[in-house]
TrEMBL record:
<keyword id="KW-0460">Magnesium</keyword>
<keyword id="KW-0479">Metal-binding</keyword>
<dbReference type="InterPro" id="IPR019818">
    <property type="entry name" value="IsoCit/isopropylmalate_DH_CS"/>
</dbReference>
<comment type="similarity">
    <text>Belongs to the isocitrate and isopropylmalate dehydrogenases family.</text>
</comment>
<keyword id="KW-0520">NAD</keyword>
<dbReference type="GO" id="GO:0051287">
    <property type="term" value="F:NAD binding"/>
</dbReference>
<dbReference type="InterPro" id="IPR011828">
    <property type="entry name" value="LEU3_arc"/>
</dbReference>
<dbReference type="Pfam" id="PF00180">
    <property type="entry name" value="Iso_dh"/>
</dbReference>
<feature type="domain" description="Isopropylmalate dehydrogenase-like">
    <location>
        <begin position="2"/>
        <end position="316"/>
    </location>
</feature>
<dbReference type="GO" id="GO:0003862">
    <property type="term" value="F:3-isopropylmalate dehydrogenase activity"/>
</dbReference>
<dbReference type="InterPro" id="IPR024084">
    <property type="entry name" value="IsoPropMal-DH-like_dom"/>
</dbReference>
<dbReference type="GO" id="GO:0004449">
    <property type="term" value="F:isocitrate dehydrogenase (NAD+) activity"/>
</dbReference>
<dbReference type="GO" id="GO:0004450">
    <property type="term" value="F:isocitrate dehydrogenase (NADP+) activity"/>
</dbReference>
<protein>
    <submittedName>
        <fullName>3-isopropylmalate dehydrogenase</fullName>
        <ecNumber>1.1.1.42</ecNumber>
        <ecNumber>1.1.1.85</ecNumber>
    </submittedName>
</protein>
<dbReference type="GO" id="GO:0000287">
    <property type="term" value="F:magnesium ion binding"/>
</dbReference>
<dbReference type="GO" id="GO:0006102">
    <property type="term" value="P:isocitrate metabolic process"/>
</dbReference>
<dbReference type="GO" id="GO:0006099">
    <property type="term" value="P:tricarboxylic acid cycle"/>
</dbReference>
Length: 323
């Protein structure tokens, strides 16, 4: 297996090496192709990701990604949005599950459509007004709904939308319902504002959530707070050919270089990579190492601890190397 490794910017350069070390411990035969992309490279060379970089990534089986700083510059093209769009990784899958540091009982997964909505970049800009076009298609809505409906162990699908106001959401909702009925999946539908409320009030009621790009982006950050923070939240970007795995958190420039970034989200993203590759046994090993590390109280400052990134790495590898 060839894995493209793109640490990116900020703390991505600190947490991804930990995830790579974890993968090497359980998947020693894999080949790792390191590619330098991101805003830091853009500042040095005027390009965030070259065509050669992109071609090298395409030659790999999957991608382990860190974090990217995306400045509000017209000349800057977001690396992660480019990869998602160009490699047609249309499903953003974000699992949330309670652990020892979680204040709530949580075990659900958000399936977020990954290539459309307001993130398409279709905007008309004038001095006094900006018009942003929201793109929702039947094709994209159907394929994210099908992936959500095929989640292993699915109990009930929650379709999140704002169809009472937006015709685009009406299309998304109707298509998701059609797919759920076709596949005999139990479902409910919920307005996004009610979803935000219920996610806090009773998160244990949810199992599998499917929604549009913007709503999924916001709700998944809210969900991260339920399990202890962004430092524990992994994700996958999945298409029919390519897959990219990344922590939900950003580049966190305020703590970059201090050695205190939480690598657990990146490590759990590597676990999702193993699951995607059919390496269930190795994925379980990684989860056990994470659980034991948290149980030992080896926590970085974002979780109320005083340990460093290197301490978490040491603990994870200790449990992975133990018989």
């Amino acid at each position: 297996m060839r894995i493209a490794v793109l640490p990116g910017d900020g703390i991505g350069r600190e947490v991804v090496p930990v995830a790579v070390d974890v993968l090497k411990a359980v998947l020693p035969g894999a080949e790792y192709v390191h590619v330098d992309v991101g805003h830091e490279r853009f500042l040095r060379e005027g390009v965030a990701m070259s065509e050669e970089d992109f071609e090298n990534v395409k030659k790999c089986d999957c991608i382990l990604f860190g974090a990217i700083t995306t400045p509000p510059k017209k000349c800057y093209r977001s690396v992660i949005l480019t990869l998602r769009r160009e490699l047609d990784m249309y499903a953003n899958v974000r699992p949330f599950k309670s652990c020892l540091v979680s204040p709530y009982r949580v075990d659900f997964t958000i399936y977020r459509e990954n290539c459309e909505d307001l993130y398409c970049g279709m905007e008309e800009v004038s001095e006094d007004m900006v018009l942003s076009t929201r793109k929702i298609t039947r094709h994209a809505s159907e394929r994210i709904a099908r992936m959500a409906c095929r989640r292993p162990g699915l109990k009930k699908l929650t379709i999140v939308h704002k169809a009472n106001v937006l015709r685009s959401c009406e299309l998304f909702r109707d298509v998701c319902i059609e797919v759920a009925k076709e596949l005999s999946v139990p479902y409910e539908e919920m307005l996004v504002d009610a979803m935000a409320y219920n996610l806090i009030r009773d998160p244990s009621r949810f199992d599998t959530i499917v929604t549009t790009n913007l709503f999924g982006d916001i709700l998944s950050d809210e969900a991260a707070a339920l399990i202890g923070g962004l430092g524990l939240s992994p994700s996958a970007n999945i298409g029919d050919r390519y897959a990219l795995f990344e922590p939900v958190h950003g580049s966190a420039p305020d703590i970059a270089g201090k050695g205190i970034a939480n690598p657990i989200a990146a490590v759990l993203s590597a676990k999702m990579l193993l699951e995607w590759a059919g390496r269930g046994k190795e994925a379980e090993m990684v989860q056990r190492a994470v659980d034991r590390t948290l149980a030992d109280g080896v926590l970085t400052p974002d979780l109320g601890g005083a340990y460093k990134t290197s301490d978490v790495r040491r603990s994870l590898l200790k449990y992975l190397e133990a018989p």
